[in-house]
Amino acid sequence: MMEVYPITIEGKTFTAITVKLPHTNLLVISNEIGYVMCGALDVELLNEKLSDRPIVAGRAVGVKTIAELQEAELESVTHHARQYGWQQGMKVREALVKIGQEK
Q1: In this predicted model, what pLDDT tens digit does every residue of 87-96 receive, in sequence order?
Q2: What confidence score (pLDDT) does residue 17 get?
Q3: Residues 21, 38: contact at Cβ < 8 Å?
Q4: What is the pTM of this model?
Q5: Which of 5, 64, 72, 88 is deepest in the core (most CB within 10 A)?
Q6: Are 67 and 58 in contact (CB under 8 A)?
Q7: Options 3.40.50.300, 2.60.40.10, 3.30.1980.10, 3.40.470.10; which CATH number does 2-100 get?
């Protein structure tokens, strides 16, 4: 099952996506600029194999819901996300607000 719905963080709208898989959930919060995902995101792959693409993305681990993802800390971020001030240890909510302001 898949759920897609809008969420608002500090007045900015994002798309929340939950894909329910056997024994786990795939979680994503995104807008036109970038996205944050659960531990399924391979940031190393994005930084190394897809470095020619300006992918703004971050990964948070140990989350099971969109609400938990919003409150988590970024475990890793892409090189391109750093251009928006994203860094390891930053709250996901704070990172999303940074790209929400760019729209």
Answers
A1: 999 999 999 9
A2: 97
A3: no
A4: 0.91
A5: 72
A6: no
A7: 3.30.1980.10
